[in-house]
Amino acid sequence: xxKSEIESYQSIRNIIDEYVQNKNFxxxxxxxxxxxxxxxxxxxxxxxxxxxxxxxxxDLTCNLSQYSxxxxxxxxxxxxxxxxxxxxIPVVFxxxxxxxxxxTPLGWLKFFLxxxxxxxxxxxxxxxxxxxxxxxxxxxxxxxxxxxxNSQSYSEQKGPDFVPLYGDGKAAE
Length: 173
What we know:
The chain is an alpha/beta fold.
């Protein structure tokens, strides 16, 4: 682990701490993590999260490379909402979020916009709120944030909507 990586983990912990403590934050908070396979992306975040009070220790993980259609993804949404009703904030890992959907590179991104930005999901002809939830998107194809945003499919598949921007117009890292 280098100094930059330690500082990144500490920044994530600070953001999660603030999110957990602030009652005004009601929409999900989302992180994307990149690195080579087996580099400990999920492990490192799970270790941080395990130390934060009021965050669910239940492991909700979706490996999108194993899903073949949108309904498989939406099956977990009610479970996320229900986990939040326990009084703890659920943490959901979306592994391989940058994998193909129906042979379309980065095709899953568009399905996360409403949950991330509006804090709800559509089911049975109604929108349902998640409440507070932490979404963690672990990349599988791209080893760095730079590779992700510079990929050919990034703009075509709603990448700029998926990655929030700071006031200076630079992508949040």
